[in-house]
Amino acid sequence: MAQSGGRKKIQPHIVEEWTGKIYASFCIVLLVVTIFSMVYYVATKGLSTFLQDGIALGEVFGSTNWKPDGEPPVFGALPFILGSFSTSILAALIAAPLGICAALFMVEIMPKFGKKYLQPVIELLAGIPSVVYGFVGLSVIVPFYRDIFPGQGLGILAGATVLSIMILPTITSIATDALAALPPGLKEGSYALGATRWQTLSRTVLPTTMPALLTGVVLGMARAFGEALAVQMVIGNAPHIPRSLFESTSTLTSVITLSMGNTVMGSMQNNVLWTLALILMLMTFVFVFIVRWLERRAKR
Amino acid sequence: MSAKTVDKIATAVIVALSGLIVLIMAGLLGFILVRGLGHISFDFLTSPPETIKEGGGIGPQLFNSLFLLVLTMIITVPLGIGAGIYMSEYAKPGKTTDFIRLIVEVLSSFPSIVVGLFGLLVLVNVFGFGFSLFSGALALTIFNLPLMVRITEQGLASVPQAQKEASLALGLSKWKTIQSVMLPIATPIILTGTILAAGRVFGEAAALLFTAGMSSPRLDFSNWNPLSPTSPLNPFRPAETLAVHIWKINSEGLAPDAPEIAAGASAVLILTVLVFNLLARWLGRVMLKKFTATK
Amino acid sequence: MKKSMLLVLTLVLSLTLAACGQNNNAAPNNTAGTNGGTTDEASANSGGNAAASELSGSILAVGSSALQPLVDQVSKTFMDQNPNVSIQVQGGGSGTGLTQVSGGQADIGNSDVFAEEKLEAAQAGELVDHQVAVVAMAAVVNPDITVDDLTKDQLVQIFTGKVTNWKDLGGPDQAIQIVNRPSSSGTRATFEKYALGTKTEDLQGSIQEDSSGTVKKLVGETPGAIGYLALSYLDDSVKVVKYAGVEATEENVANGTYPVWAYEHMYTKGEPNEVVKAFLDFMVSPDVQGDNGDVVELGYIPISKMQVQRDVDGNITQK
């Protein structure tokens, strides 16, 4: 580029090239700036709990006592952290077998029927707003659990059920892609050796695609971890560690949605809610790193 | 047990679980549609909501959802395509590129509530955009950008290497090649992806609660001056979208027919998402046919 | 080289962004004029076609979701009478309302509680209180529960978990399920202050919902449930219980015999401007507060009907 500077007139295609390059770089810089400012703002707000209000780190992460109104106020977020983990892990446990089976069905058993009917329906499931899921959960799943199990129906299992349906599309579509991308020679070799379909699937296909399948499950879990409105409607929101799967409890997101509007920005309780948001954000990083690690293993 | 029996059992289990999924979905869609379809009428779709009387509609909310979608896409598409082009064509493999890719990944899996809170803090309060369509559109852009980047990258990657090289060999600049050779070929993929991303905007509520607000100021549909506060086109007015409206009437609805309105609005929302999906598939097919036929 | 440039540019930009946020954070008490960009813009725009004598401008009212329906409804009437005024009513909770009016982003902050209870004394001191209505709350139970009167002590025992079965209160043999509000909620603060007289802790297994609609749905459906709702939300799906023999009626609230009520506040920062004042005056005018007005129709109690008055500390005086 340095040589072109010596000429009197810069050639139009070079100008064009530079415009394009600057535009594309500008877009990427904007993207990076956005994420940096997000991390910066949420982190400053979230950390002010410890720096400004002087709440001990151990209190937030170690105590099960949540009494924002108490004298003195106590902010133990452990029940919410446990609630978030247990609902999202349980949701992933329910959704993973279902999603992987659906993917096997679409790729290995009836590809034509699966591609034509099952896939569009699952994609549609991804488009249903979370509010609607919450609403259906509250009107169908909660009364159902209330009738057949002891308790009020609200709780971890209700939340996990709603979430598992919500993350099913994520798991299924990633599993489908992974299965479809498998080189056909691998399967054909197994069949040629006289293996049945299940033997092929269980000994060749599933082990080879396992990291990719797990990627889908982790991404689904990440989505479940961050989901707010649907969970808040069915989890019950008591700030305690529940004694059973059918007892009211809270997640990080449900506490934030429940109390953010009621508290004044800058107050101690509000700052603690930002700390919870910071935990949510940090967990996103953790999930992304797990996914990256799995992807690296898949490539090997 | 012989291997054959095990195979049969396993197949049956897989088919049964797949059937279960179909059943769950059919039940879910049926539940929403059966409860909601009866309530949908032209009047319901066009009239404004009522606070305490029966017979309120979802007209402004429907309009807000669509308008917010358009606004979001106006911001997202150029930025997303630009960033996608950078990642696909200009970025050289190395630490920086890896880092940017990581950021895109992180951004795409951020919980919507965190984005909403960030919007409340920065867009609404610090920048002073207030609860407005514009704040909402920016928050949704944060969601959709990574998706758009990935779609653009995929689209550009699908362009045959030979075509790109032919263009470069003719002496066209890299940018010109991208602009007039690669982008048109990538269009079907980008367009399909964009429509699917748009469907996501339609259903988002958590982030909008904190950014676009929950009120629907009276709209004067004869006033198309985008600067007037009662004009539907003013991007700086607060706007309640359909998904937010469902949340609101479920939680604080005073109208006697609130459950029916919620059911009707849910059905409308799902039908719209369905239309988006079908549109994306159809458009993808048509464009693919067109591009492959003219070659 | 280029890559590092990109990185540097990024960092510089993020820092600028961050710094500009910091400045704003440091000075949250800017006047409404500098921070409320949208409001000013909007009022300037609508001002163009207004006659000089008519009111014109725009108002942003943010806050309490319990007060939102009323303000929303009244603002529609007000805008019909003053076509050049645009009023935007936002929910978001009392905390958001007080934050935004105090920070100058909103013209009016709607709140269920006195500002002194949420804000620092200095911030609360700048706000001017406009009480526009009274909202009363009643304890509600699942329709299958035969109990129809609960004393203060009984309520305290229920909400502190000392009594866990309805049979101890003369009802059927059914475990009590509490449907409470989050501890940050204004409705809960009112209920605890005036019905229980004490703060309660969140019990293991209790349900907490912030929205009246969900509370009503859960109390109506869950066996043995007890919760509390504003009078405007009451209907046949839940059973209202008397408070120490007193029914929750408008009359009993107005003459001071039924104590579980709170003011609905609309705060302004300093004295309101002309348009905001006109709107606030309209809120308490007979058109709105009268027998066929929006206040009564939406289930609130008109401020003019109240024969008693209450201050921040809960001291009641006859008017």
Automatic annotation (TrEMBL), chain A:
Gene3D superfamilies: MetI-like. The chain crosses the membrane at residues 21-43, 89-109, 121-144, 156-183, 204-225, 272-294. It is found in: Cell membrane. GO terms for molecular function: phosphate transmembrane transporter activity. InterPro entries: MetI-like, MetI-like_sf, Phosphate_PstC, Phosphate_Transport_Permease. One of its GO terms (cellular component) is plasma membrane. It is a multi-pass membrane protein. CDD domains: TM_PBP2. It holds the Pfam family BPD_transp_1. Residues 81-291 form the ABC transmembrane type-1 domain. One of its GO terms (biological process) is phosphate ion transport. Signal peptide: none annotated. Keywords: Cell membrane, Membrane, Phosphate transport, Transmembrane, Transmembrane helix, Transport. Part of the binding-protein-dependent transport system for phosphate; probably responsible for the translocation of the substrate across the membrane. Belongs to the binding-protein-dependent transport system permease family. CysTW subfamily. This is Phosphate transport system permease protein. It comes from Paenibacillus mellifer. The gene is pstC.
TrEMBL record, chain B:
GO terms for molecular function: phosphate transmembrane transporter activity. GO terms for cellular component: plasma membrane. Gene3D superfamilies: MetI-like. Residues 62-280 form the ABC transmembrane type-1 domain. It is a multi-pass membrane protein. GO terms for biological process: phosphate ion transmembrane transport. Its main location: membrane. The keyword Transmembrane applies. InterPro entries: MetI-like, MetI-like_sf, Phosphate_PstA. It comes from the Bacteria. The keyword Cell membrane applies. CDD domains: TM_PBP2. Pfam families: BPD_transp_1. It is found in: Cell membrane. The chain crosses the membrane at residues 12-34, 66-87, 99-123, 129-149, 181-202, 261-280. Keywords: Cell membrane, Membrane, Transmembrane, Transmembrane helix, Transport. Belongs to the binding-protein-dependent transport system permease family. CysTW subfamily. This is Phosphate transport system permease protein PstA. It comes from Paenibacillus mellifer. The gene is pstA.
TrEMBL record, chain C:
Residues 51-286 form the PBP domain. Coiled coil: none annotated. CDD domains: PBP2_phosphate_like_1 (cd13653). GO terms for molecular function: phosphate ion binding. Residues 26-49 are annotated as: Disordered. It comes from the Bacteria. Residues 1-21 form the signal peptide. The keyword Disulfide bond does not apply. Keywords: Cell membrane, Lipoprotein, Membrane, Palmitate, Phosphate transport, Signal, Transport. GO terms for cellular component: plasma membrane. It is found in: Cell membrane. Pfam families: PBP_like_2. This is Phosphate-binding protein. It comes from Paenibacillus mellifer.
